[in-house]
Structures are given as structure tokens and as C-alpha cells.
Design the sequence.
């Protein structure tokens, strides 16, 4: 495989299927609510808030799409028990953000903000994993609208509800807070969501 592809470490496990997951060949579509339409003239991507970030950022689609891109080879595990292996993602590495803002030491978690108010939370060391990216392409094709076009987060080593589709911004936080699926009224999914230790629900 080409050296400029980042290999997600979980793809090198001898058993790539986490406990109580089943392999799927199709690519299921899973989300709450409608599929948003994309308007490149009004779309923006925000990084906030000061002073956890050195300056608030608002990128237009043109600016975001001009950032350097990486390729990541990774597996995907949905908490509803399907796993899809061998995905080649392309997009902007989450680490790229650190070239544009300096983070305060107080920033410990992120809230990922998406269209229609969908959110998900994760610790910054997971968000900035070497295999994490804002993907615009999958297996060489632009994402389908159903799968997050124009851009989705991909965090391969956590359950896929953390891989938020239709991302519009990142909010850094000092303390952890539940996102959409993590809230009790939407099922109380786990604050981290490690598939290898089956962190499915908040009380697992
Ligand atoms: N905006 C948004 N992103 C989301 C979700 C959602 O409800 N809204 N669901 C998540 C869940 S539960 C999964 S398993 C993956 C599924 O991604 P896919 O539909 O591309 O397979 O998207 C995640 N991203
Ligand atoms: Mo999921």
C-alpha cells in the first residue's frame, strides 16, 4: 500500500471485528433526522471558543476545501452491531486544525456540531488521533449526501456515532458534556464509545 496512506492501527489487529459485531459488505445508512442539502455559498466551518482557542475561526467552503488532505485506511463499527472494514477515506486531518489555532491547556474535550443541531462529544486526545479526519471522499468518490456530503468526521477507533456526518464546527470544552446520542433522552450512549471494550451505553 502507498506510503502516503495513514493506516488506522485497528486494521492491523489479527481480529478486526470487535466483540458482538457482525461484518457487513454493504454500507448501511444510519442517522437521526433528514439529510441536509449543501449550499457552498452559505456553508461554513467554525472553530471556537476563545480563549480555549487562540482565535475563533470561520472558514468558507472554499477555504476549508483548500486545506491539505490526507488519506486514511480504516474500519468502521456501528453500535447497532455492524462493522464495515477496508474504508479508504480522504479529507482534512483533525490535526490540521492545530496549524491554525493554538489550544489552551484547559481544552480537554470537543463537541462536534453538525447540521440540524446534531452533536457528539469526545476527549481531545481521541479527536486528534493520527487516523482521525474530516472526510470529503470515500473509496475515491465524494461522499454521498446520505453518508455526510460534503464533510463528515471519521474517528475510526470509536463507535461510528462519533463519526458525525454533515459537520459544521468544533467547539472545545474544559469539561465533558453529552452530545445528541449521549444524552439520556436519546438512549444515553457512552461518553467515549470504545468498541473493543463495548462502551455502548453510559452505564457500561
Ligand atoms: N449528523 C449525524 N451524524 C451521524 C449520525 C446522526 O444521527 N447524525 N449517526 C451516527 C451513527 S449512529 C452512525 S453508525 C454513522 C453511520 O454512518 P453512515 O450512515 O455513513 O454509515 O453516522 C453517525 N453520524
Ligand atoms: Mo451507529
Sequence:
Amino acid at each position: 500500500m502507498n506510503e502516503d496512506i495513514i493506516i488506522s492501527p485497528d486494521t492491523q489487529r489479527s481480529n478486526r471485528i470487535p466483540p458482538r459485531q457482525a461484518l457487513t459488505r454493504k454500507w448501511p445508512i444510519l442517522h437521526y433526522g433528514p439529510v441536509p442539502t449543501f449550499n457552498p455559498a452559505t456553508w461554513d466551518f467554525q472553530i471556537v471558543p476563545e480563549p480555549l482557542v487562540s482565535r475563533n475561526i470561520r472558514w468558507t467552503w472554499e477555504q476549508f476545501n483548500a486545506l491539505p488532505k490526507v488519506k486514511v485506511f480504516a474500519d468502521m463499527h456501528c453500535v447497532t452491531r455492524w462493522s464495515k472494514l477496508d474504508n479508504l477515506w480522504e479529507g482534512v486531518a483533525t490535526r490540521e486544525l492545530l496549524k491554525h489555532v493554538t489550544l489552551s491547556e484547559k481544552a480537554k474535550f470537543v463537541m462536534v456540531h453538525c447540521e440540524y443541531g446534531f452533536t457528539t462529544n469526545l476527549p481531545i486526545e481521541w479527536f486528534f488521533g493520527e487516523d482521525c479526519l474530516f472526510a470529503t471522499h470515500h473509496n475515491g468518490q465524494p461522499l454521498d449526501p446520505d453518508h455526510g456530503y460534503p464533510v463528515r468526521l471519521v474517528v475510526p477507533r470509536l463507535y461510528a456515532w462519533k463519526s458525525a456526518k454533515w459537520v459544521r464546527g468544533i467547539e472545545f470544552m474544559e469539561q465533558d458534556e453529552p452530545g445528541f446520542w449521549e444524552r439520556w433522552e436519546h438512549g444515553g450512549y457512552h461518553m467515549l464509545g470504545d468498541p473493543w471494550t463495548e462502551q455502548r451505553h453510559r452505564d457500561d
